[in-house]
Amino acid sequence: xxxxxxxxxxxxxxxxxxxxxxxxxxxxxxxxxxxxxxxxxxxxxxxxxxxxxxxxxxxxxxxxxxxxxxxxxxxxxxxxxxxxxxxxxxxxxxxxxxxxxxxxxxxxxxxxxxxxxxxxxxxxxxxxxxxxxxxxxxxxxxxxxxxxxxxxxxxxxxxxxxxxxxxxxxxxxxxxxxxxxxxxxxxxxxxxxxxxxxxxxxxxxxxxxxxxxxxxxxxxxxxxxxxxxxxxxxxxxxxxxxxxxxxxxxxxxxxxxxxxxxxxxxxxxxxxxxxxxxxxxxxxxxxxxxxxxxxxxxxxxxxxxxxxxxxxxxxxxxxxxxxxxxxxxxxxxxxxxxxxxxxxxxxxxxxxxxxxxxxxxxxxxxxxxxxxxxxxxxxxxxxxxxxxxxxxxxxxxxxxxxxxxxxxxxxxxxxxxxxxxxxxxxxxxxxxxxxxxxxxxxxxxxxxxxxxxxxxxxxxxxxxxxxxxxxxxxxxxxxxxxxxxxxxx
Length: 489
Known about the structure:
Layout: E1 13-15, E2 18-20, E3 31-33, E4 39-41, E5 73-74, E6 78-90, E7 98-103, E8 109-115, E9 119-126, E10 135-137, E11 158-163, E12 170-175, H1 182-188, E13 191-197, E14 212-222, E15 228-229, E16 238-241, E17 244-245, E18 248-252, E19 255-262, E20 268-272, E21 278-283, E22 286-294, E23 297-300, E24 304-310, E25 320-324, E26 327-335, E27 360-369, E28 376-379, E29 391-394, E30 398-405, E31 415-419, E32 425-429, E33 444-447, E34 452-458, E35 465-471, H2 474-478, E36 482-488
Parallel strand pairs: 6-9, 8-13, 14-19, 18-26, 27-30, 29-36
Antiparallel strand pairs: 1-2, 3-4, 5-6, 6-7, 9-11, 10-12, 12-13, 14-15, 14-16, 16-17, 19-24, 20-23, 20-25, 21-22, 21-24, 25-26, 27-28, 30-34, 31-33, 31-35, 32-34, 35-36
């Protein structure tokens, strides 16, 4: 159903006055020690074109749960955090140290747990030797706090982002969005969870605490020394689960809530536990109207899905595996229950907002121009220009967008489409209904080659200004497959 073969060559070009820095599809530039003991990245061509992928014994590392960040200060209505952006080394492959870019020295970055209706302020300090920024993916925030690709934190500088958390409880994530560098920075490790929680949803009695587990999935290629290789996407055959290659996770014989995030640059995960029921309860924008039992969930780059898995029937029957298709990526070691499981999944969760009458319909076409070297990513036939507004949207308006993937053979690219600022509902695909992975409130939706997806969204936002919409394969957005909408009064 899903085409997962991709090709892209990244190179030096200029898009609307915005320089896109060079990548060559080879080994990522080396990280070399600095005087303070950290590492400094250097952009540029790399020498190793035919790197071999490291081999390792699978399921020898325990899957970590990303640490929860503690506020450095709290006020009556705000939790304040500080987080450096810096280089580090991480044991992604057993026994090897990989140079990475991190939030707070962690790969995956620390989880920020926010409370609906209570503000969060996160101050990032850029300790890298290159500009960076931070985008809260799925966040309803003002333009100046959205991490616009041209709104950067210079090396040595500090930037505070304010997040109101006035939206539904949901699984969001924060990541780099520096134009031309976003693919490199995310690939190296600039990603982390941001969870908005709502006390009112505790009435559902879903698994919580140690049984509410965020799991970040992404892929990578490594050389024999454990260094990351930025090569052809199909060569990224090693899946990292919370930053570990094919780890294991001890679980008790009870229900768990797993918050699954696909942070891969270019991959679609087809997740299953060998036929074990997966109770889907949430998507990008929070809880669904009702749980849906499936045996497989499909998650494209940037998407999130939440499932509840009951391990009680499997105690004493050996390990279970989380598969991507037929490839095992995580082993579950099931032990007897560690106490009475009082959690459950109710028949009714949170209704979707009613769809208002749309007053505007638009068509958004994503495509690659492969006649150029390097190729150019296009939206409605034009590459990203930070000085151009592509769409003006009236504040409060309801619109239907027809998202079209115009790429065809011999380059049948697929494109996950992402909007900043708000979530949408999927009305259907091509001339038919939507797919199971389209359910709920979405901010990212997969569009296959020559496919189309109809979405509807209401711009009931207090904010005016410019926001991005783009392909969420960062290698494509780095080549220009981005555009700007402006919310006007």
